[in-house]
Amino acid sequence: MEAPNPSTINFQPSTIWAALAQIPDPEIPVVSITDMGMVRDVTVSDAGRVTVTFTPTFSGCPALHVIRDSIEQAVRDLGVADVEVRSTLTPPWTTDWINDDARERLRQYGIAPPAPTGEGQLIQLDAEPTRCPRCGSLNVCMTASFGPTLCKRMYVCDNCREPFEGFKSV
Ligand SMILES: [Zn+2]
C-alpha cells in the first residue's frame, strides 16, 4: 500500500466550493458567502494552485479583508499550500445572486430580502416592494436610505410597528 503523497492530492473545485460554503457572511452570520453569491470562480491549476475569485457584496462594505482572509484560511485548512484570493468588482455584485435558501434565512433573521431587481419597475420608480419580515405586511415605510452599513435600508412596519433592516436591491 502506498501512502498518499500530499503534494499530489488533487483538489476538486467542488471540494473548495464546499469549504467556502461554510464561511459566514461577516455581517449576516445566518448566510454564507456562497449563499450571497460572492464567490464567483474557483480554479485549481495542474500544479495544485487554488485561485478563488470573489466579489464583495457592496464596495462600501468594510468586511473586504475579513472575507479575503476567511477564504484563504478555509482553503488552507483543506491542506492546500498554494492559495490565491482575488477580488473583482466587475461585474458588480447584485442582489440577484443571493440564492433562494439564503433569502428565506434572511427573512427569518429579520432582514427583508431584496426583491429581484427586474421586478416592480413598471409601477414604481423606487423599485422593490418590501415586506415586514415579522408580520409580512407590505405596509412599511423607509426611515433611512442606509442602515448601519451601506448595504441596507432601515424600515419601520406600520402594521406591527417593528423597525427592521431591508436589503437595498442593486
Ligand atoms: Zn410588521
TrEMBL record:
<dbReference type="Pfam" id="PF23451">
    <property type="entry name" value="Zn_ribbon_PaaD"/>
</dbReference>
<dbReference type="InterPro" id="IPR052339">
    <property type="entry name" value="Fe-S_Maturation_MIP18"/>
</dbReference>
<dbReference type="InterPro" id="IPR011883">
    <property type="entry name" value="PaaD-like"/>
</dbReference>
<dbReference type="InterPro" id="IPR002744">
    <property type="entry name" value="MIP18-like"/>
</dbReference>
<feature type="domain" description="PaaD zinc beta ribbon">
    <location>
        <begin position="126"/>
        <end position="168"/>
    </location>
</feature>
<feature type="domain" description="MIP18 family-like">
    <location>
        <begin position="15"/>
        <end position="85"/>
    </location>
</feature>
<dbReference type="Pfam" id="PF01883">
    <property type="entry name" value="FeS_assembly_P"/>
</dbReference>
<protein>
    <submittedName>
        <fullName>Phenylacetate-CoA oxygenase subunit PaaJ</fullName>
    </submittedName>
</protein>
<dbReference type="InterPro" id="IPR056572">
    <property type="entry name" value="Zn_ribbon_PaaD"/>
</dbReference>
<dbReference type="InterPro" id="IPR034904">
    <property type="entry name" value="FSCA_dom_sf"/>
</dbReference>
